[in-house]
Amino acid sequence: MQSVKNIAEVISQFRCDAAIDSLEAYGSGHINDTYFIKNISERGSDYLLQRINHQIFKDVAQLTENMIMVTCHLKQKLMDSGDGDPEKEVMTLIPAESGKYYYKDSQGDYWRMCYFLKNTRSYDLVETEKQAFEGGKAFGRFQAMLSDMTPGVIHEVIPDFHNIEKRLEQLNEAIREDRLGRLTTVEAELETVRKYAASMRYFQEPAQQQILPRRVIHNDTKFNNVLLNEHDEAQCVIDLDTVMDGYVAFDFGDAIRTIINTAEEDEADLSKIQLNLPLFNAYTQGYFKTAASFITDAEVQSLIKGVLLLPYMQAVRFLTDHINGDQYFKVRFGGHNLQRTRAQLQLLKLLDANSDLLQTVIAREMAYQRQHNV
Ligand code: ADP
Ligand code: GN1
Ligand code: MG
């Protein structure tokens, strides 16, 4: 945690009118540090300041360039269509005095600032079908608006981010090193990971790679990365650090991972992890409402594979980090990453057991959208 003095100094480096009333640590992300800056004046803007995790995002200039490219593209789309408010529906970065959209302080930490969108909120756990439906609409629309962006223009700021082969290699590397001697305590989890490995290769297969278009996607569609307004309507997709090329099923799967689960991502009591099917139906409906305009049949077929892959990949990443000594994800207690791993593997088992049913819902909702010609 930074000192408030240091943060005030950082804030002064950005071109904003913030007369600070209060400053509070904000959000529940696992990577960056986020602070909410409340303006003294009710009419003035509030801001969000973020310390970028430079260990993970090694090239902050490229990371920022990605964000600018994506937010400009989205704002332009809204302006062209006249359908929406670019200020409210797309995040806006604030330039620093240097003109760059980030600032490096004397300690070598990187910071960025954006407008805080008033009267919005995000949810770690989805509460209602309306929220799920609106979340689906938001992420589907986000993909739709980026679907004409040329893949390849966005920097790959974290290489092989959703490449399961590489993630399993990283796990094997951690196992070989076993720096902290944790291996003997994770045998059951490793067995489950190995059992599913072969079935998780769908997006690695040349046959799929030929028919599935690479697109600019969000890559971190946890439900708390969409802001809903005071009426729980979709307003803005946030947390654009990981926007990179990938398959649309990754975003669908990662969203479902957090929406369908009745418990938190790190639930210790595995019996509390259940599938909330009405929320799945609602998200899928909302998603196709906005994604039907661009998504191909092959992509629709692949969505269920994303639903299984993303909790699996997340479990592999949490387990790797646990074995490595918790170097990547923030942890709140010893064994946190292992607890997260167990929760994700439990979720995966339930999703796998119900995958035919989920596939039926996907096909039904897509057919409905096509019939109603949207
Ligand atoms: P992290 O990488 O830590 O997840 P986020 O960019 O998702 O960081 O921000 C953390 C939280 O701050 C979000 O879940 C959301 O509640 C809130 N937030 C982020 N950006 C904005 C914004 N522009 N306006 C209002 N709230 C925001
Ligand atoms: C991290 O920062 P946050 O919490 O939005 C991670 C995602 C994971 C997620 C799991 C850059 O996202 O990939 O899915 O935790 N971000 C990065 O909750 O690794
Ligand atoms: Mg976030």
Written description of the protein model:
The chain has 374 residues and is of the alpha+beta class. The chain has 2 domains: 4-115, Phosphorylase Kinase, domain 1; 129-372, Aminoglycoside 3'-phosphotransferase, Chain: A, domain 2, CATH 3.90.1200. It is 46% helix and 12% strand. The chain has 12 helices and 10 strands. It has helices at 4-11, 60-81, 86-89, 129-146, 164-177, 187-197, 206-211, 248-259, 277-291, 297-324, 336-353, 355-371; strands spanning 20-26, 33-39, 47-52, 103-104, 110-115, 120-121, 215-217, 226-229, 234-237, 244-246. The strands form 3 sheets. The chain has a 5-stranded antiparallel β-sheet with strand order 1-2-3-5-4, with helices on one face. The chain has a 3-stranded antiparallel β-sheet with strand order 6-8-9. A hairpin with a 6-residue loop joins strand 1 (20-26) and strand 2 (33-39). Helix 5 (164-177) packs parallel to helix 10, helix 8 packs across helix 10 (297-324) and helix 10 packs across helix 12 (355-371). The termini are far apart.
Write the layout of secondary structure elements.
Elements: H1 4-11, E1 20-26, E2 33-39, E3 47-52, H2 60-81, H3 86-89, E4 103-104, E5 110-115, E6 120-121, H4 129-146, H5 164-177, H6 187-197, H7 206-211, E7 215-217, E8 226-229, E9 234-237, E10 244-246, H8 248-259, H9 277-291, H10 297-324, H11 336-353, H12 355-371
Antiparallel strand pairs: 1-2, 2-3, 3-5, 4-5, 6-8, 7-10, 8-9
Main pleated sheet = 5 strands, antiparallel
Oligomeric state of the chains present here? single chain
Q: How do the helices and strands follow one another from N- to C-terminus?
A: HEEEHHEEEHHHHEEEEHHHHH
What gross morphology would you assign? globular
Number of strands: 10
**pLDDT averaged residue by residue:** 95
How many structural domains can be distinguished in the coordinates?
A: 2
Report the top-level CATH class of the largest domain. Answer: Alpha Beta
> Any ligands, ions or cofactors bound here, and which?
adenosine-5'-diphosphate, 2-acetamido-2-deoxy-1-O-phosphono-alpha-D-glucopyranose, magnesium ion
Strand order of the largest sheet: 1-2-3-5-4
Number of alpha- plus pi-helical segments: 12
Helix content: 40-55%
Low-confidence stretches: none
Question: Helices and strands: which structural class?
Answer: alpha+beta
CATH architecture grouping of the largest domain: Alpha-Beta Complex
State the fourth-level CATH superfamily of the largest domain. Aminoglycoside phosphotransferase (APH), C-terminal lobe
What would you report as the Rg, rounded to the nearest angstrom?
21 Å
Could you please say which CATH topology of the largest domain applies here?
Aminoglycoside 3'-phosphotransferase, Chain: A, domain 2
